[in-house]
């Protein structure tokens, strides 16, 4: 579904991605792990066109999207829940979800809203509450729910566990597993919480300093002594 081939990305003189190759097949959960500053978020942002790749190719369902404007990607079926959540704080939960559905078929709105509420019951309880007054975990649920309202074929999730209590982290990862299992949603997950991410993923990649250094099934990497030492036992 998504193929990133030989992608180089720069921030000014900083060479952030150095020839990255990643594939996400339809129906998979694929995760990208790595320490802070490894380039994980930059890869997701490059897929979304901001910044654009300086070299290399990004292909989605057979179409080259390397130079396609960010807003056009939603129409193609790509939705992102960005790092830091970035909800609309002055809008209610319901209004945030409406914003997510702007480019979707309005005939599906009520069904999609029900699906989000079933996935995250807390959002239905808080539907009239302003987004900025929600807890961090509730805001993350809202960010994911808003992305799902666009009816994406590919869901990009950037650090959904960041700054969230462990109990809520488990709830969010269970929700990701559920949308993949019941809806066949393809998910590309960028995450520092390697344990939860690798348990969830069908396949995984490891990024270090803008390079992919290792790949395999989630279980293979979870059991890898090098990965355990670096990411699962207090390492960085």
From TrEMBL:
<feature type="domain" description="ABC transporter">
    <location>
        <begin position="2"/>
        <end position="234"/>
    </location>
</feature>
<dbReference type="InterPro" id="IPR030660">
    <property type="entry name" value="ABC_branched_ATPase_LivF/BraG"/>
</dbReference>
<protein>
    <submittedName>
        <fullName>Branched-chain amino acid transport system ATP-binding protein</fullName>
    </submittedName>
</protein>
<dbReference type="Pfam" id="PF00005">
    <property type="entry name" value="ABC_tran"/>
</dbReference>
<dbReference type="InterPro" id="IPR052156">
    <property type="entry name" value="BCAA_Transport_ATP-bd_LivF"/>
</dbReference>
<dbReference type="GO" id="GO:0015807">
    <property type="term" value="P:L-amino acid transport"/>
</dbReference>
<dbReference type="InterPro" id="IPR027417">
    <property type="entry name" value="P-loop_NTPase"/>
</dbReference>
<dbReference type="InterPro" id="IPR017871">
    <property type="entry name" value="ABC_transporter-like_CS"/>
</dbReference>
<dbReference type="GO" id="GO:0005524">
    <property type="term" value="F:ATP binding"/>
</dbReference>
<keyword id="KW-0547">Nucleotide-binding</keyword>
<keyword id="KW-0067">ATP-binding</keyword>
<dbReference type="GO" id="GO:0015658">
    <property type="term" value="F:branched-chain amino acid transmembrane transporter activity"/>
</dbReference>
<dbReference type="InterPro" id="IPR003439">
    <property type="entry name" value="ABC_transporter-like_ATP-bd"/>
</dbReference>
<keyword id="KW-0813">Transport</keyword>
<keyword id="KW-0029">Amino-acid transport</keyword>
<dbReference type="InterPro" id="IPR003593">
    <property type="entry name" value="AAA+_ATPase"/>
</dbReference>
<dbReference type="GO" id="GO:0016887">
    <property type="term" value="F:ATP hydrolysis activity"/>
</dbReference>
<comment type="similarity">
    <text>Belongs to the ABC transporter superfamily.</text>
</comment>
């Amino acid at each position: 579904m998504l193929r990133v081939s030989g992608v180089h990305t720069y921030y000014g003189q900083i060479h952030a991605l150095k020839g990255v190759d990643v594939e996400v097949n339809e129906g998979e959960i694929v995760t990208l792990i790595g320490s802070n500053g490894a380039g994980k978020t930059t890869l997701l942002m490059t897929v979304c066109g901001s910044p654009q790749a300086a070299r290399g190719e990004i292909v989605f369902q057979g179409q080259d999207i390397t130079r396609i404007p960010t807003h056009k990607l939603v129409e193609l079926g790509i939705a992102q829940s960005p790092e830091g959540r970035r909800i609309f704080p002055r809008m209610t939960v319901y209004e945030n979800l409406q914003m997510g559905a702007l480019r979707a078929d309005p005939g599906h709105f009520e069904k999609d809203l029900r699906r989000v509420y079933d996935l995250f019951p807390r959002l239905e309880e808080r539907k009239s509450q302003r987004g900025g007054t929600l807890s961090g975990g509730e805001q993350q649920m809202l960010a994911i729910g808003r992305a799902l309202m666009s009816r994406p074929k590919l869901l990009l999730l950037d650090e959904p566990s960041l700054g969230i209590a462990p109990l809520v982290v488990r709830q969010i990862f269970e929700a990701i597993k559920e949308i993949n299992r019941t809806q066949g949603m393809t998910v590309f997950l960028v995450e520092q919480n390697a344990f939860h991410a690798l348990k969830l993923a069908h396949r995984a990649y490891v990024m270090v300093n803008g390079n992919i250094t290792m790949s395999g099934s989630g279980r293979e990497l979870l059991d890898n002594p090098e990965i355990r030492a670096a990411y699962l036992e207090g390492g960085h």
